[in-house]
Amino acid sequence: MENNKALRVFAEEVRLETLRELAHLGFGHVGGAMSIVEVLAVLYGGELRHDPARPRMEERDKLVISKGHAGPALYAALALRGFFPKETLLTLNQGGTTLPSHCDRNKTPGVDMTCGSLGQGLSAACGIALGDRSLGRDSYTYVILGDGECNEGQVWEAAAFAPHNKLDRLIAFVDLNKQQLDGACDDVLYMGDMTDKWAAFGWHTQKVDGHSVDAVLDAVRRAKETHGKPSMIILDTVKGHGCELAENTFPCHHIAFTAEAIAPSLARAEQMLADARKALGEGR
Amino acid sequence: MSYTVKKTFEKENVEMRAAYCATLIEMAKSDERICVLDSDLVGSSGMKPFFKEFPERAIDCGIQENNMIGVAAGLSAAGMVPFAHSFAPFAVRRCLDQIFISCAYAKLNVRILGTDPGITAAYNGGTHMPFEDMAALMAVPEITLVEPTDSVQLRWLLRELKDAWGVYYIRMARKLQTGVFEEGSRFELGKAAVLRDGTDVCIVASGIMVKEALAAAESLAGQGISAAVLNTFTWKPIDDAALAAYSAKCGCFVTAENHNVVGGLGSAVASSLAKSLPAPVETVGVQDRFGQVGTEAWLRTEYELTDRAIERAAKRAIERKRG
Fold first, then answer.
1. Who among B66, B82, B106 is closest to A154 (CB)?
2. B44 touching A, CB under 8 A?
3. Residue B129 and residue B295: Cα distance in Å, rounded?
4. A37 — alpha (psi -120 to 50), left (phi > 0) or beta?
5. Where in chain B do CATH 3.40.50.920 domains reside?
6. Chain B residue at shortest CA distance from A140
7. Which residues from chain B sit within 8 angstroms of residue A153, using beta carbons?
8. What kind of fold does domain B16-172 have according to CATH?
9. What are the tens digits of pLDDT across the range B109-162?
10. Which of A187, A222, B21, B268 could form an SS bridge with B238, CB 3.0 to 4.6 Å?
11. Residue ranges of chain B that CATH labels 3.40.50.970
């Protein structure tokens, strides 16, 4: 049982709102959005310095969603935190929307970097961390990578760059959900042990249960206590976690569905949220 | 815009890279946002003095151009003004997606310096000889493409870019260039500089081809042909108004570029004229070929990037105008 019951409630809220966004659309990157729900809850639940009224305040912490297709999950967290009205979530992917399929820093309040062409976000995060350091800010830069995304060579250029430049206010996550578009990551392109790889590149590396808000929170706090090198937190996750339909579909990188097909998943997510709220109430 | 064209054209006594480095040092002294990135070419780019003076704002990324451009985008997102350098083929061809998505589409504020354009890559040969860098970037929306002619224009350009916002690609020969402009000349981005007025044909030139264009115009004058010479150091946005005005005045054009005529300056000029006042355009430049190794002088002849080639093209253009 998790200790951080308020964070669990927030995580279930993010999951439910993300699912509602995608259900409204009838298709989308469900799997990879579901698998980063807990890390988003930990960041926007308190670890990431932000102010919804001042989304561009210089001293904020920044978040780069390098796996830009997980935008819908970030949008849910941002809406719940008050960056924009929750009703906006239902405009996902519509012409003229502020919520495009892939994250765009110019369209969505609270989005810090534009990503979507995989492999580029870690480099941008390195630059943001360098810039904040150069301008004397104490901000942290967070970045979320996909495990499939780590096929890209540029990721490993940045993997070498960050420790060399001692970017210790850079905290990266790999969402190790073990699937990419064409199937299981190990079948498409076996990359070896992700934890060993980042450690070998000189990162402070941890591997945690990516669906435990307690574990992710502890890992982020340990990362903040690490000096002289960047931190990598490998999130051991399940692609589609908390969405029955996605969990039962392989691969579930991008799925299309009818309202009837997604209805049981929505109902379960609603129940999970109700249970989390009950647990929080009882805890109080 | 207030520039003065020199009376005579000689090699400058300062290399372009030295002017680049000195100007960035001067800018960085008064602006903490200025920073530079290189990809294991600091020895070539002449930026060692900058690295020495501002070690905390100078980053040698190693041989990883993609990451360098991404880091530059991130630095800009944090409020810095990055100048990132590699040889033009690697800065552009290799990094097109990073320039497109992380910089331009993200509407960030990045300056990319690509050196050794076209035949100035000389002994490095075909692998390092970009005839396509401007063409590749031409279709990146909102980007500005510039090729400074001499150290005076370069210094003006860098200072101009200090407080500008956007993605700027600077195509620059590293070594000694022919001086065209008097010290203190000022220009306007997107506006052509008129180096010589004329009425029979208009030569539109950039980079190392400017001195060839001026020599050709001088030779043509001796034959009773009045040639105007425009220096379109900004390839994008191209100066539509000047081209339309010279189309009315001269009625035909020669473009002169150290670049593939496909997708380069010749294409930009022809495309602009097609929208305003169409006129015959002869294109002097690399005729859709790859680069190769050799001295700059040998390559100049091999690819016909000469004053003589411009002269011949001018006569063809005039013939076509007369129909």
1. B66
2. no
3. 12
4. alpha
5. 193-322
6. B78
7. 66
8. Rossmann fold (3.40.50)
9. 999 999 999 999 999 999 999 999 999 999 999 999 999 999 999 999 999 999
10. B268
11. 16-172
